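For reproducibility, we list the full input for the 2-(butylsulfanyl)adenosine complex.
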Amino acid sequence: MNENADAARVAALRQQLREASHRYHVLDDPTIPDSEYDALLRELEALEAAHPELADPDSPTRRVGAPPSGRFEPVEHAIPMLSLGNAFSAAEVEDFVARIVKELGTAEPGPAEPVFSTEPKFDGLAISLRYEHGRFVLGATRGDGTTGENVTANLRTIKAIPLRLRGENPPAVLEVRGEVYMPLAGFEKYNAHALAHDEKPLANPRNGAAGSLRQLDPAVTARRPLAFYAYALGEVSPEVTLPPTHSQTLQWLRTLGFPVSNRVETARGASGLLDYFARIGAQRERLPFDIDGVVYKLDRYDQQRVMGFVARAPRWAIAHKFPAQEVATTVESIEVSVGRTGAVTPWVQMAPVQVGGVTVSRATLHNADQVARLDVRPGDTVIIRRAGDVIPEVVRVNLELRPHDAHGRPRHHAWRMPRHCPECDSAIEHIDGEVIARCTGGLVCPAQRKQSLLHFGSRRAMDIDGLGERFVDALVEYGYVHGIADLYRLTVEDFVAMKQRADEAAGEVPETVKAGKIATKWAENLVAAIAASRSTTLERLLFALGIREVGEATAKALARHFGALQPLLDADEAALQQVPDVGPVVATRIAHFFAEPHNRAAIAALREAGVHWPEVAPQRAQEGPLAGKTVVLTGALAALTRDEAKARLEALGAKVAGSVSKKTALVIAGSDAGSKLDKARELGIEVWDEARLLAFLADHA
Ligand code: IVH
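The corresponding predicted structure, in tokenized form, follows.
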């Protein structure tokens, strides 16, 4: 092998790839097809692997290099990152210009109509990039303007950000500021993929950009379609002579390899600014990225210095914001969708309309209260708004256009939350006073299946070692598991086949095939772990069922109180409330869960699959001196902790509750008791002090 030739080839490849990447990501003018780029990159990777001595952290192969950092270090900005004042009307823009004309007029004679750089206001995330001797060394978010977060590793994955400055004699220090954003095409592609794979879509491109940059694993950021536009400078070392204007500086940044929007222009006077605003506004829907306004910056640096700053914003620049975009369309139907936690969200299916450059046919209604407030009905004409967010919302209904029947009655009734889940037909529970309605199908609802399975197998539930997210996803996706009881039917062969399928789908060589032999040890272990979980306790089972609000403590209390499953299944809400710590809301949740035939069937299937637990005598102190009494503890006790006092009272049959109501039989008031004591007095409830409690406990010990 010829070492020198390889070194030369590595250098040439790096140069060629940098150039191609610059043409593609910065100039938007690709010269070589993607396939050729990939081939060159692979050749470089191979050479670098063969020659570790030629390693270079800025090589085009190293865009995804650093391992997850765990957290982001704070970065103090050498020069603060400022925000901008806002203008929302032509009058405010005219005031802004008038202020400048006035002050410049007295400070320095100049043209009556100052020149401004006019720029799109990119809707992403402001960042600062620090280059030392031409190399990208530090990238930070804006943070509070003074201190940001070090997101260098993530920024390195963004191909529009040069890792090295172009040209000879780079400055000792150059900080370039600009916006990281997610182009709309990339955003839509990302979300289409996410939705097809049952992953969480991004709410809008701005959140997409911000969320992607704050990923702890740069490999995740690298898969997000992010881009960058430069629009300002930070610290610049003194040997650099900057051009006299901001717009010329942007030109210079272009020559250094930074993307600068070609929609940046210069304009004179308020009329020039407003003309730019109107033109960009008209293009907004066709732009390949989101903008939320335009920015005007006084172009000459000497004039900027005259204007100076107020608080955290320059007096020489202003953001002219677009109003939120609203359009009218008609409602085809009102639907609900079920999330992974069972939350049921209503939304409208609408005739498709263009709003803010995106075609939308769905808008969220958030929750049932919102539907009631708006009174949206099928056939209605609605105004929808997209304020930066891609998921638009319904702002109001145009009641004058509501369709009526021949008798003059509205054609549709007011909407009501459906009683049954569209995914699994289980009852939808909407507890009074709560905003969110939920599907009670937990275990059986396909929308919630993965989450409930994962919870079922978790350590404190059924404790199935090795049943992690990857397997659960594949088990559900490939239809191996519909209900939890299906787990107990899985064989070693099932797991091996499933994993092979998952690996292939991920484009990996099946890990299960090692040295021509199918490795099955892990699958045997998993099947054994599932089998072992058959022998459990009622407490674990109840927790594993994933009933909302039933955590480990409540599961334990239920298991102790009822001793066996059947009496719990038979208990009504009043009986459930006898369990220590179970209040009305939790009692309702439990009752609804067990009332659901699907859930009962799932439990029966578990039993049939051999899941068993010891049944014990109920541990209820029904005969105790406080049996059936609700006691409330308030204030601080000196001799006992809260938990001890609670346990001792419960041992004597009391139910210890957290708040005083008419049902309260007794209040124990320690020192500094406050409103609960007042309430007890108001309701005429018996009150004991600590001494009285201790005497009572001693008598009944
Ligand atoms: S200049 C001293 N130019 O708007 C001026 N900012 O509201 C500093 N932004 O944090 C900012 N496009 O995230 C500037 N062409 C542009 C911009 C822009 C978007 C964002 C930036 C900044 C925020 C201020």
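The two ends are 89 Å apart (CA to CA). DSSP finds 24 helices and 26 strands in the chain. Both points were considered when choosing residues for closer inspection.
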